[in-house]
Amino acid sequence: MKIKTEYGHLIDIFGIYWVLSIDNSYAETILLGLPKGNGGLTTFRITGELVDKVEIIDPIIPANFMYINSGLYHRALIEENLLDNIIEYDEDAYNRFLEIIKSEGLVEPDFY
Predict the structure, then answer these.
(1) What is the pLDDT of residues 44-84, one digit of tens each?
(2) CA-CA-CA-CA dihedral for 16, 45, 82, 12, to nearest 10
(3) I need a surface site. Which of 12, 72, 77, 95 has the fewest CB within 10 A?
(4) How far is the CA of 48 from the CAs of 14, 32, 41, in angstroms?
């Protein structure tokens, strides 16, 4: 899955999850993207009150995603316990995840 931000940046998505609004009247959809050079996963809200202006340019969710805790995530984020650390910009988790997604051909070899 891939989005384009309002600034024209292309971002690969490696997680999608849903949270209830404060008043429980609707669920928000949040994407976890990996911007080049960012060092971790960034959230993009695509539904709810504070929506980020993004365009979904590739809506296909890869087969290597798995469902857990109200979300879909790249399997390595769950199987290797990288999700929490990469959200917190842990360098070791980021580098390990880059190694995995590069080996799977999900990002270019020069992605950092």
Answers:
(1) 999 877 789 999 999 999 899 999 988 999 999 999 999 99
(2) 70
(3) 95
(4) 20, 16, 20
Cα–Cα nearest to 10, from 39, 33, 30, 41? 33
User: In 3-state terms, what secondary structure has residue 79?
Assistant: helix
Tokens linked to 3: 């989005």
d(CA 5, CA 71): 22
Hunting for tokens 């690969």 — which residue is that?
Answer: 12
Integer Cα distance of 26 and 106 in angstroms: 32
- C-alpha–C-alpha distance, residues 32 and 44, integer Å: 6
- Per-residue pLDDT at 24 exceeds 80: yes
Q: What are phi and psi of 72, to 5 degrees?
A: -115, 130
* Residue listed under structure tokens 């809200």: 45
